[in-house]
Amino acid sequence: MSSRARPASVPAEAAWSNEEQAWIHTALDDEDRQHGLFRAWLADGALAERSLYRHGQRHGLQVFYRVEPPRWAVLSRVHQDIARVELTAADGNFGARRYFDGDDQEVNERGVRVPPRPEGVSEGASYIGQSSDCWVEFSPRPAGATRVAGSRSWDAAGVLRRSRNWDGEGWSRSYHANGALAEEGQRDDNGLQHGPWRTYRDDGSWQETEHFVRGELTRRSEHIPAGRYLDARVTHRAGAVQPLGAHAGFLRVGRWTLHGDDDDEGELGALQLGSVGDDDTLLGEALADGDGPATDGRLPAILSLMRKQPALSLCAVVRALGAGDPDARAAFDTLRAAREQLTAAGRRAMADEIIAAFDDWRQHLSAAPLKDLLDGLLWGAEPAPLLLTLASLLLRVGHPRRAHDFLAAAELVVEGDNDDEEEKTELEGYRQRIEATRALILRDLGDHDGAERARQLGRRRRISSEELRLLSAIAVTPDADEPRLVYADWLTQRDDPRGAFIVAQCQLAALAESEQQRREHLERTQQQIFEQNAGAWLPPADLDLRTFHRGMLGAIAIPGDAFCDDPDALYRLAPDMRMLCIDTPYDPIRLSKTPELLRYRGFDLSDAFVDSDDYRHLAASPFFANIEALRFYNASLGDEDLAAFCRSPHLARLRSLDISCHRDNDVTVEGIRALVSSPTIAALAELDVSRLWLDAEALALLCRAENMRELRELRARCNRFGAACGELARFEGRLRVLDLSHNDVDERGLRLLVAAESLCELDELYLSANALGDAGARVIAEAPLLAGLSVLELDAGLRHRAGAVGASAIAAAPTLAALRSLSLSMNEIGDEGAIALAAGEIIALQRLDLYQNGIGDEGAIALAGSEVLRGLRWLNLDANNIGQRGARALARSTTLSRDCTVRLAGNDVPIPLREALQERFAHVTFRYPWGGPD
Length: 934
Known about the structure:
With 934 residues, this protein is an alpha/beta fold. It is 30% helix and 19% strand.
């Protein structure tokens, strides 16, 4: 804190914070956590924030006012007429958000006045515009309930339309426009449908019930009112298309068998859904001319007959249909004869479903599952053409949903891993047919946007084997220019402007600084090519020229749907990219079935909203077999989600796992238990569990687990390990990086920690915001096992700050002489501590962070003249008390390197001395990293 003139609007109990660049008034609980009313004023006295905290987390009403600069980023993204934003929060989770203009009228984020709130709409609901759900309200997560926050939505008339988990017990409900209940059911703790889900008509009568077990549909019952015609020509699908085994030809298209309760009683009968031909013709003839009276049930009937007669070739029949083979009639005559024989024997080969008939309801039981169709794969048919043809036939006889299943199966075969170049070429021809067929199916199902996207995908350019070879060479040798220039030449020969772009960027990277004219020409060339063509390189991603280096994309978070639509587009731009960063929107099932995941060594879902179903599908993907790093920072990860990955047989190569969070992950000690008992994750080298607020039991599990012995990097900021950090003495591995910042570690726990043999090879140690102070600094200085340390971070929290005594102990410690980076920000070392560091033993220091340490001119003079700090490349002196004398000494320093970056924000440095400092050092700044006044 520092003294400055207090505006009249700021109360006496508020104190100025250099870090916040604001007047702050807050209260702390017994554990140094914010608790109660929090207020912040800018330097001119303008109120910027008024919020409530409960034991360190935002809880209650949060109000942010429009000031310059804004304290909350959202105010820079909404309409300029918005004067304040109000949010509700519970235990750190934000809920409803409301906006108000300068006249104190409620508006939306675009500054448009919100209509009067209809009667019945909660005051906590936010207006989101004219749609079926105009008003939406989110609830906090109830203690001990599911991890999914509740929500309610109302239409423009104030009629409740949807309610999910509002009672904290997992119930989801939707409502008709007249307010009548439309659907209700419960979800388990992982968000999966579980138990009966009932659907009601708008008159309140029961329509049907679907029974789920942990997300899997097991039974469906339908209520048929008296006098209403029963149209039973419907099949019901549960489950996703999945590959079985290593061979792409073995497939299961959904799970079509629906089971009834053993106690059900009623008359069972066969329902015949059509004959082989209404006019004594056959399905093939009706389909061949395209306008015959195709009746539901014919194709299942024919294939069911063929299953009874294995001598018949389904492949031959289907190919005859498509090619107009003159022998097709003979094949159908054989089928008809077989049917007559079966009918004479009393077999009901035509049955598509069996109906359990009761007085007022019917239960549908599948009698001819789609496995009958897939049995054709065993009779000499190649999978891709057969499945694609069956999809087309099913669409034409009125089964678009079943057709879509077969299309997905055909796509799995085509996209499967295949090393045969000749077969790859043959399968490539089916891809455009697949997308064209998909467009027809989706249009038939009413998904016109999906149909248009499929139509566009049918025209996309696939990577040829020759181009794949060139890109693979870049991936193998990412530092070499030659493979890039060879690929650029290949592109130029095909009139692709990216060839010239790659050449220009490679030449730019190799230019000497003196060739300014040539540099300007190449920069104009790359800019022109990029502006004219980048929109087609990776739609719909918003590419930035600054992220390209030597012609290739460096890093990007790509929407999952865009990646699945055209994974080759990303590979063309970044063949050497190891970490795939997925952004929303995305379809988890589709993403998990994308073979191009095998190209990447890392998978990042940070900051994406992911539910348990998504994680379950991703964890089961065989295309994660090459993944070495998983990053789920702030991605709604729970214990069961983590357990799903721990059970996956496809993650044997995993070496790095990040499950840290800001506030959205929900991993507890049970998730850690699943991790340490994983049968496949056996050699983890890097683990980040920061901000999960784990306790001592979790640390004990990690330290004693056999599959954690290869761990070299453990990042565990913001947990509750405290004195239990001594458990690391039981760890049999050798850590290189350890981060226990914000863990309530005190002097006693620190002594146990630094005596652990597992730290004898430690290179980086982070212990910020613990209960250490001067005593902790002395313990570290005296620890012989830390002799190899190169990075030490001892930033202070709100209390337990180190002073000159602690800084002197570290500066004089021979065991710390090899430190390359030292951070002591927000302590109170003052001039005396700075003088000690300047005269100390740390001769290899390259980075020194002394932010907000009460250092004045004397300390700055000592640092400027230090022989020990000749190798310094970064010096942070922000938010100190350095004035004219100290600044002049730094500007005249003969020991500090010209290449050293010097930070002096928040110090009283006159303008002339600022100019002198800018001449003395190549990089000097007087602004905080987050902005603010000079």
